[in-house]
Amino acid sequence: MRQIVLIALTALPLFAGFFPSTVQTSVSSVGEKRIMLNSALPVNGMSGVIVHNYGNELEAIISYVTQTSSDGNAQLIDTDIIHHDELPTIKTAVASGDKVIGGYLYNNVLLLAPDADTYAKITASHSKTWIHPDLYALFLSEEGEATPTKENLAAFAKAYQVGLIYIVKNGSAVLLDPISGNIVGQKTMTGLPAKAQYPFYMRFDEIQTGWFSKSGKGDYYKTMEKI
């Protein structure tokens, strides 16, 4: 059944500066929960996917991984691979020679910004596939949550194929890898508004989480610092 394991792997774009590069390498050796990469990823904490080749031009993602040291040492991430109710779970073990794509989906970015002007300036200055925060707000509402956390950002990223979370903080910006939970980029920022929309810029007045929702009040910058 070719369609079960067949996946489309698009060309891998390279980013410079603030955004880590999406790169390709392979597995050198395999331990119980750790692997060694043939070449290190650009940043420690980056996640990636391991792709196994089944022959006959059939490939599938079999595991997630995150780099833990600059020599290419990496740890397998214990999380479900892309899930589909109509397809069986892939249980192929990681093996030497398997392909590794570091920074998988890093071109798909969710931006959490303090206001509409900041959001517009950032999205206009980088050529990315921007996942609109309205989708994240709706996701939080459906989950019964009012504010961002690493846990719900990871769940959202998996559901919407988001590779990075761009978070504007008070005087800085960071890039969160939602799969590994690590910061993989950071820089200073100036000219940010003193008063920010809570919990982040979106085209809704607030996130409704129930009859007694109080999510419309709070401090944006303090909320971002907790992530």
Secondary structure blueprint with pairings:
Elements lengths: L1 H4 L17 E8 L3 E4 L9 E9 L2 E10 L5 E5 L21 E4 L5 E5 L3 H10 L3 E3 L1 H11 L6 H11 L3 E5 L3 E6 L4 E7 L31 H6 L2
Parallel strand pairs: 7-8, 7-9
Antiparallel strand pairs: 1-2, 1-6, 2-5, 3-4, 3-6, 4-5, 9-10, 10-11
What does the model show?
- There is one protein chain.
- With 227 residues, the chain is an alpha+beta fold.
- The chain folds into 2 domains: 2-102, no CATH class; 108-225, 3-Layer(aba) Sandwich (Rossmann fold), CATH 3.40.50.
- The chain is 19% helix and 29% strand.
- It is built from 5 helices and 11 strands, in the order αβββββββαβααβββα.
- It has helices at 2-5, 116-125, 133-143, 150-160, 220-225; strands spanning 23-30, 34-37, 47-55, 58-67, 73-77, 99-102, 108-112, 129-131, 164-168, 172-177, 182-188.
- It has a 6-stranded antiparallel β-barrel.
- The longest helix has 11 residues, at 133-143.
Summarize the structure.
With 227 residues, this protein is an alpha+beta fold.
Helix proportion of residues, in percent? 10-25%
Give the CATH class of the largest domain.
Answer: Alpha Beta
- Strands, count: 11
Low-pLDDT runs of 5+ residues are 1-16
Number of domains: 2
List keywords for this structure.
single chain; 227 residues; alpha+beta; Rossmann fold; six-stranded antiparallel beta barrel; five-stranded mixed β-sheet; 11 strands; disordered N terminus
